[in-house]
Amino acid sequence: MTQWPGWRSLLFVPADNERLLEKAGRRGADACILDLEDAVAPERRPAARAALPTAIARLAADGVAVLVRVNAGTREQVHDLEAAVGAPLAGIVLPKVEHAHELVVTDGILTELETERGLEPGGVPVIGMIESARGLLAAGGLAAATPRLAALALGPEDLALDLGGTPGAALLTEPARRVAWAARAAGIEAIGFPGSIANYTDTGRLSAELETAQGLGFSGALCIHPAQIGPVHAAFAVSEADLDWARRVVDAAPADGAVFSVDGRMVDRPVLLRARALLARGRRQRGR
To answer: Which GO molecular function entries does the Swiss-Prot or TrEMBL record give (predicted)?
Structure first.
């Protein structure tokens, strides 16, 4: 299983937009996703691929984790992966995943490229995007398809289109719940929120949707605009109060594993494990 680095905000940046690429490392996101899919016209993809290694290296030098969203379909995807895979790459985002074999094929291509380029096989994690009803119904199998998969991401715009509705809480809360269940059952992360990723001006609505996502078990979200980064960080941050509670729980835990109490409430093994997980999340977030 791939270890999740604790990213809360993952900001999409068109891979062929030099102006946005130049600013991306200063936006404050935990990670940037250089997009070769929706954001780049097909005729511009060869040039974007050629410039990709330089863009990745520049952002990585700024201390930003850099991922690349490749295209679905093996033919385009192979070209994307060949351009992307190198030492500073922090991950691959695979869109429109509907079948486990798609993840297995991507895993195999990545392993070949890692081996050829002297990288650790399995070292490049993958985020799989759920963007259709078919992908949603297959989420459980997708989440367990390969140890390289680090997270499932809810793709709200394409999913809402496929479901025949408008991206918002009414349509997407149940799909978000299913994605979270599938991810957690496989021991990986769920990222996203039940709302329109295109909304970056209505911060009240965005914050409410992020709060719903956090309550469902999501640990981060995709962003398409820097204005979304602050609300995302606020929604998924581990508070000082939570960290204080977690420290007291861990410190009070008896060596024999017996049930104990903190603040007048019973603490058993699941509660202790939650406290340890909160401390681990806090360490990752504060290590940036």
So the answer is: citrate (pro-3S)-lyase activity; magnesium ion binding
Neighbouring residues of 179: CB distance < 8 A, sequence distance ≥ 6: 130, 136, 139, 152, 154, 190, 192
Measured CA to CA, the distance from residue 147 to residue 188 in angstroms comes to 9
User: What is the chain's mean pLDDT, rounded?
Assistant: 93
Widest Cα–Cα separation across the chain: 64
Q: Comparing C-alpha atoms, which of 126, 113, 49, 59 is closest to residue 86?
A: 113
* Number of C-beta neighbours around residue 75 at 10 A: 7
Domain ranges of the chain: 9-237, 241-286
DSSP state of 4: P
Q: Residues 6 or more apart from 256 whose CB is under 8 A from it?
A: none
How far is residue 245's CA from residue 209's CA, in Å, rounded to a whole number? 26
Pick the CATH number of 9-237 from 3.30.460.80, 3.20.20.60, 3.30.70.1620, 1.10.150.120: 3.20.20.60
Rounded to whole angstroms, what are the CA distances from 190 to 32, 125, 142, 154? 17, 14, 12, 8
Residue 263 CB-density burial (10 A; 0-12 exposed, 13-18 middle, 19+ buried): exposed
Note the pTM of the prediction, 2 decimals: 0.89
DSSP 9-31: EEEEEETT-HHHHHHHTTS--SE
* Tens digits of residue pLDDT in 67-126: 999 999 888 999 999 999 997 999 999 999 999 999 999 999 999 999 999 999 999 999
DSSP state of 164: T
- pLDDT at position 287 is 61
Q: Tokens 């799909």 correspond to what residue?
A: 175
